[in-house]
Amino acid sequence: MNKILCFSFPRSGHHLLVHLLAQYFSGNIEFPEGKSHNKKLDVGDLHYCEFYRHCYTLGCDDPLVNFQKNHDFELNSTLPLEWSHIVQCRHPIESVISWIERFDRRITDMDSWHWLAKERILHWKKFMHKWAIECLPLSIVPYHNLVKNPQLYLEKIIRGMGVKNIDFDLISKIKAPERSLRDVRKSPFFDANKFESYELMVLDELEYLEIPTLFH
User: Fold this and answer.
1) Which domains does the chain possess?
2) Tens digits of per-residue pLDDT, 46-92?
3) I need a surface site. Which of 95, 122, 132, 138 has the fewest CB within 10 A?
4) Numbers of helices and strands, H then E, in the chain
5) Which residues have a Cβ under 8 Å from the Cβ of 28 and sit 6 or more positions away?
6) What's the Cα-to-Cα distance from 98 to each of 32, 129, 183, 184, 187, rounded to whole Å?
């Protein structure tokens, strides 16, 4: 099996992707979604680890691991020898809203929230240039498409992992659990002018990654 590093910008659907892979490699389209949130997961030929909760080693010390998550928060990660990579992405405004809601709930004033949001939008831009634009990933996995058409990305990733006899019938039966796409206008920190300016900062990247715009 080939080894794949998944460079996923935070809140871009990584656990959803692992769950879909677990369905395939277990041969069970009813595979419990909660089990795919583990820091280490061994299902059939899938041997997954989450860098931040399992080993803090890029590429993992466990030689069996063949799929690993990394956020490259400091933008200083390098791809280990013999590893390929994929990139998970989402519209940066959606990702950043979700990221702040999940991990920075104590930020409640407008100015602090928008300062942090702008910094993370800029980080998204650098992240995507590093991993999706300036080098060639096996696959770019936009969240909105993964939710709608998981089969397309599963086939690419499973093929990239070196599976010789892909079970296309099984792939066709795998469905993403229902996810409601975020309406950024419902954020308590929504400011039309600011949100539009954030999107302007990344229009070229959105076009390259084939992520639909929200305001332009």
Assistant:
1) 3-209 (3.40.50.300)
2) 999 999 989 999 999 999 999 999 999 999 999 999 999 999 999 99
3) 122
4) 9, 6
5) none
6) 24, 21, 11, 10, 10
d(CA 19, CA 189): 31
Q: Which of 9, 49, 38 is nearest to 141 (CA)?
A: 9
| Token pair 């990305």: residue | 153
Q: pTM (2 decimals)?
A: 0.95
- Polymer length of the chain: 216
> Residue 209: CB partners within 8 Å, gap ≥ 6?
89, 128, 132, 140, 142
Dihedral through CA 96, CA 123, CA 37, CA 157, nearest 10?
120
